[in-house]
Amino acid sequence: MRAMKMYGNWRSAAAFRVRMALNLKCIACEEIFIDLDAGDQHKPEFRTINPQGAVPALFDGDGPPLTQSLAILDYLEETHPEVPLLPQNPRERARARSLAQLVACDTHPLYVPRVRNFLMENYGLSRERMLEFLRNAFTTGLGVLETRLAQEPGTSRFCQGDAISHADLCLVSLWVGTGIFGIPTEPYPTVKRIAEACLSVEAIARAHPLRQPGAPS
Question: Care to name a GO molecular-function term for this sequence (predicted)?
Answer without folding.
Answer: isomerase activity
